[in-house]
Amino acid sequence: xxxxxxxxxxxxxxxxxxxxxxxxxxxxxxxxxxxxxxxxxxxxxxxxxxxxxxxxxxxxxxxxxxxxxxxxxxxxxxxxxxxxxxxxxxxxxxxxxxxxxxxxxxxxxxxxxxxxxxxxxxxxxxxxxxxxxxxxxxxxxxxxxxxxxxxxxxxxxxxxxxxxxx
Length: 166
What we know:
Elements: H1 4-8, E1 10-14, H2 16-21, E2 31-35, E3 41-43, H3 46-54, E4 63-66, H4 73-84, H5 98-101, H6 125-134, H7 136-142, E5 148-151
Helix pairs in contact: 6-7
C-alpha cells in the first residue's frame, strides 16, 4: 500500500474555463485539485481532509457503503442502519437525520463555507448537523458500534487497513 503522502500528493489545477461558469464565491468548482496517482478531481479542501480519512481507524464491525454518487446511496444508508439497529422505525434515534446516523465521511471537504460551531451539549438537531459537518471524520469516529459509514471515494483513498480489519 502506498504512503499517505504519495496517495494524497496533489497537483493544483486551476480551471479557467470553469471560472466562466462557476462565479459564485461558494462554488468549489474553480478551486479543484487532482490526486496523484488515480487522478481523482477533488475540492481543494481535500488536501487537509484527505490525511484525516487516510488515518481514520476502522473497527471490525464497521459497515462501509462505498458507491458512486447518485446511485441510491441514501436509501442504502437508511436500510443498512435500520437492519443494524433492529428496524425500530419509531425509535428516537431512528428519527434523527440520516447523515447524523450514517455520516458521509468526506463531506467536510465538500463544504464551501465554514459552519458555525455550536455548544457541544446542545440538543438542537441543527447544532448536531453543524458539529457533524465541521468535521465528519471526528463525528464518525465518535459513533457507537456498529458504525455505518458512507463514502464516494475510491477504496484506495480510504484507510489502508480497511479490508484487513477483523
